[in-house]
Design a protein that fits this description.
single chain; alpha+beta; FAD/NAD(P)-binding domain; 8-stranded mixed β-sheet; disordered C terminus
Length: 451
């Protein structure tokens, strides 16, 4: 096998939202950074496609917000849920303390292509597609780079720092021998598309009835639909057949009518195995994991992508100077974990509580009625704003601190990419309402801590 060796200051493994934001921010401040992405492009469906107000604020801080909002997208100002025949507003984003008081729904590939195009204007940025990491280069007790494969060629990338941004099944984490703690999650999600008609709901909408929960996310001419199912029940659902699945969906959302017949094959339906986990230790000398590699999130609230981006901003803020000096201590890496672990713990605690409330839905097989706890909770003054803050801004939002150092080597034209957004479960934020008073107190605590 042919063999090449490259050198860089920071090697980012994974070209997802965390990896691309980190690569952009480091290159912007003059750090030589190489981002490795194992696929040949960013086009993958059923990914987290929500861009929350906290992330939009980051784009404003680096001067890209206006151009970003020129890309096709949908704007979600609230989250709602229908339980039986009663409709409730669960979250209101119109009062969040940010420039954009909405969630932008945009296909993740558009977001990543946008970031990649701007990052390439910096001479210190390099994006290597079709480079799949297969191992780590070790030096003493630390990490000195990665080994990657590109087609039939092996490439060694030596770096002062390796950042694992390669998702919940992180090879970087496994190769480093870093442990992860799994937390039991009682749900999975079936994702599929169904056409949208004029007059259908424009905002993200949860539908709960007959022991099932269905999320519908507006993607202009169709809905991205997520059917929440009990963990491990997919094989049984599949065994009962598509007719039973279609009938169940029609029961939950009668207004879909014959549109359920658009589901003609199981290949149209993808299962998302929901996980919540967290690494006790995110780093080794010369290596750190962030985003889903360090802490997989549930799709509840669609906050996973935005928590990962917040990790990237914090990492860039704290590691920028050490990387420029080519002296990245383990104490600096520990500082990133210390900064971001608390928001992770609080967010995951709320998600786990929401799941415990949601799983009660599966106990019912007939028509449902909204529980009194929910009816009382939505009448608490300011509760929708508090949930909107928790979902849209979150715990300890990060702000870009570095000033750009590397000048662009060429101008860039705006990318005109069609389509609008899907979201891997953002509508599941509606599940928080089932937690009742306990969830409300948790959200209020988040708002107080983050202010």
């Amino acid at each position: 096998m042919a063999h090449n060796t490259l050198e860089t200051t920071c090697c980012v493994v994974g070209g997802g939202p965390a990896g691309m934001v980190l690569g952009y921010l480091l290159a912007r401040s003059g750090v030589n950074v190489t981002v490795l992405e194992k696929h040949q492009d960013f086009f993958r469906d059923f990914r987290g496609d929500t861009v929350h107000p906290s992330t939009l604020e980051v784009l404003k801080e680096i001067g890209l917000l206006q151009e970003f909002l020129e890309l096709p997208h949908e704007e979600v100002s609230s989250l709602g849920v229908i339980i039986g025949d009663a409709k409730f507003k669960v979250a209101d984003f119109t009062y969040v303390p940010a420039t954009c008081k909405f969630i932008a729904l945009m296909p993740q590939w558009d977001f990543l292509n946008f970031l990649a195009g701007h990052a390439r204007t910096f001479s210190t940025f390099q994006l290597l597609m079709q480079h799949e990491v297969t191992g780590l280069l070790k030096q003493g007790q630390g990490i000195a780079g990665v080994v990657a494969r590109c087609r039939d060629q092996e490439v060694q990338i030596r770096a002062d720092l390796v950042v694992g941004c390669d998702g919940r099944h992180s090879l970087v984490r496994a190769a480093a021998g870093l442990k992860v703690i799994e937390y039991g999650v009682p749900i999975d999600v079936l994702w599929f598309r169904i056409s949208r008609h004029t007059g259908d709901a424009e905002q993200v909408l949860g539908n709960v009835n007959y022991g099932k929960a269905l999320i519908l996310i507006n993607r202009s001419d169709y809905f991205q639909a997520g059917l929440i199912i009990a963990k491990g029940s997919y094989d049984g659902i599949k065994a009962r057949g598509l007719d039973a699945l279609r009938a169940g969906i029609r029961n939950i959302a009668p207004y879909l009518g014959d549109r359920v017949n658009e589901l003609r094959d199981w290949d149209q339906i993808k299962i998302l195995t929901v996980q919540i986990n967290r690494m006790p230790r995110w780093h080794l000398p010369g290596l750190i994991c962030i985003g889903d590699a360090a802490h997989a999130m549930s799709p509840a609230g669609g906050v996973g992508i935005n928590l990962a981006i917040q990790d990237a901003v914090a990492a860039a803020n704290l590691l920028n100077a050490p990387l420029l000096e080519r002296r990245v201590s383990e104490a600096a890496l520990a500082g990133v974990q210390r900064r971001r672990e608390f928001p992770t713990r609080v967010t995951q605690a709320v998600q786990l509580a929401a799941h415990r409330g949601l799983v009660r839905v599966f106990d019912s097989t007939g028509p449902m009625h909204a529980p009194w706890q929910l009816r009382a909770a939505v009448r608490i003054p300011g509760i929708q704003r508090a949930v909107g803050y928790a979902v849209g801004i979150g715990v300890r939002p990060e702000h870009v601190r570095q000033q750009p150092a590397a000048r662009p080597r060429r101008s860039r034209t705006a990318t005109a990419i069609a389509a609008t957004a899907i979201v891997a479960g953002v509508g599941m934020a509606a599940a928080t309402a089932f937690v009742g008073w306990a969830a409300w107190k948790a959200w209020r605590r988040i708002a107080a801590l983050a202010s």
